[in-house]
Amino acid sequence: FSLCFVVLYVVFSLSTDLLSRIDLDELMKKDEPPFNFPQTLEEFEYAFNEYGQLRHTKTGEPFVFNAREDLHRWNQKRYEALGEIITEYVYELLEKECNMTKAILPVDAEGDEPTSFIYLSPDALSNPSKLLVLIQGSGVVRAGQWARRLIINQDLNSGTQIPFIRRAMEEGFGVVVLNPNLNYLEVEKAPKSSPSHPPAEVSDEPAEKRERKDEQEGKKKREFYEKYRNPQKETETERIPIRENSSSEDHVLYVWDHFVSRAAAKNVFIMAHSYGGLSFVEMMNQREVQVKNRVCAVAFTDSAHNLWLQETTKGTQDWIFQYCSNWVSSPEPLDTPLDSMLPDCPKVSAGTERHELTSWTSFDSIFRFFAEALKAREDEEAEENSNPVTTRRSSFRNKHQDL
């Protein structure tokens, strides 16, 4: 037993000593191919078919994440590279198929200042009747997207906002597409200046001897690493925030102040997914009176807002209860009313348990909700003109509670 213990102790000691000299992260990059990925869908050998599904141009198969076994980091980088191409592809669809144009943010950007942008339909600011504002959740998704995963693995309809834009235009809405996750410009970090050799240590060794020793040690490390792995160092970057748009909350407030509040539309409708719902509530906290005067209805999908943690006023809470609805992930059939643990806007089932799908599965219900809200407002305005003493839009809320 003692001998076994000694052997184990020696093995452990040797292993610990070896591991102390090895960068495990670097070692795990053994035989990792370079991060040189295609720049276009064609080069990736993928294309969207007539159903909006991403398929390999030669095999017809869906996208495969694990293109190389046991190389998760490389596969993830490849997926991200494809995602960047998808982002540009969706921008192109917004411009060419939806006839939308970019508006640069900040509106008074100068010189080399980092900028973001949103998309506007041709009548977004001039439509006198209806305006729809689309706000996605957090993460890598950019203007026009609900979920990158759905675009790549399912189809364009479920993963992008394009069906909502088209339907809105058909029904006479102007449309504003926000871009709440484009908050900074990422640039390569300047290399840190460093001395030609390490700082002098308290030692009796001559400087030349120390330098030779350091050089020999460095050579041994390089030879060891070259023997056991093919290293790749990622470029170090830094982020330069975009003025007044450095977060989702700032972006939504900025777009409200510079575009939505100045639009001609009498009736503004908001659709906000996930973190977009939280950003809308933060904006309302700061523009409560404006929102109440302009917004006709708000459709949340699996919204991340919390009226209590966000310290909303009683007036905001009452308004959200009356004019908003949240389609949440649930196994219940679509539009089934759901109990809420805290007072909030009514919650109904989105007809799916997948968070990222809630916007798509609620598509028809949301436009029906908007139509009912608009009709209720028009009926009440007509009633107010004939009878000034009336309860504003009570019929809409009573009907909506029965969904």
UniProtKB/TrEMBL annotation:
It comes from the Eukaryota. Residues 394-403 have a biased composition (Basic residues). One of its GO terms (molecular function) is siRNA binding. Residues 189-243, 378-403 are annotated as: Disordered. Residues 37-334 form the Arb2 domain. It comes from Nothobranchius furzeri (Turquoise killifish). Keywords: Signal. The lineage of its organism: Eukaryota, Metazoa, Chordata, Craniata, Vertebrata. Residues 1-20 form the signal peptide. This is ARB2 cotranscriptional regulator A. One of its GO terms (biological process) is regulatory ncRNA-mediated heterochromatin formation. InterPro entries: AB_hydrolase_fold (IPR029058), Arb2 (IPR048263), Arb2_dom (IPR053858). GO terms for cellular component: nucleus. Residues 206-243 have a biased composition (Basic and acidic residues).
